[in-house]
Amino acid sequence: MKVSSKKVLVALLMLLQVALMKDSAFAAGLLKKGMSGQEIGNLQNDLAVLGHYNYKVTGYFGDITQRAVKDFQINQGLSADGIVGNVTRCRIEQMLGKAPSAPESGSYYKKSWFEGGNRVFSIGKVATVYDIDTGRTFKVKRTFGTNHADCETLTCEDTNTMKGIYGGRWSWNRRAIILDVDGVKIPASMAGMPHAGLNNKPTRAYVTNRSGGFGRGINLDSIKGNGMDGHFCVHLLNSRTHASNRVEPMHQQMVRKAINTLEGRR
Length: 266
Prior knowledge:
By secondary structure, the chain is an alpha+beta fold. The protein is built from seven helices and eight strands, in the order αααααβββαβββββα.
């Protein structure tokens, strides 16, 4: 069948228009459904770190990535249009701790998680955990988390200390702790149950049978060889759970206990 030159020209113009629209969106700094490339892969990685993307990194902005963006926007009180513009991009960078504003060393940090605590204890920061009831300490690193800090012990020795605090068995029980981040004391609460990761699998790989009964998903285990599968939760003042996006009363009770300790009322 012979195709007219006019139809070919129309088809070429339509393809050119689509390409220009895509390029103009990238130029404007917008990431949205239908796009692909390294920037989309980076976005998926960032959303995975923040707990909103639980699939393979593909570099393609499809329905799954759009839902992850909307989930993040809703969580942060932003307009949930599923498009990553300047506001959403800045909030992602803020939650990743790329622009921290920490108080001076030696002070006691009184503000809540969303007022800046998430930036003081930003992703990648190492902290010393002081367990108030036992007086024992161990080192951790914040590796993931948006609504609260997902942490991992640094070494097997740190893991053994933490497990010993819980009587030698992992537990979801909340405990009052004080974090020391670069000399800054932060009242906090921890739950002693490693979850959502496998120590013997690559970080962010899509795996099955994640620890804590979390099943299939992204492997949220970053520090290898520490004797811990996955991460455990650390909550600060007014932080929230990832699943329900609600303030968890038992964690906040432990945070208040830590505040009382720092203020000499215990």
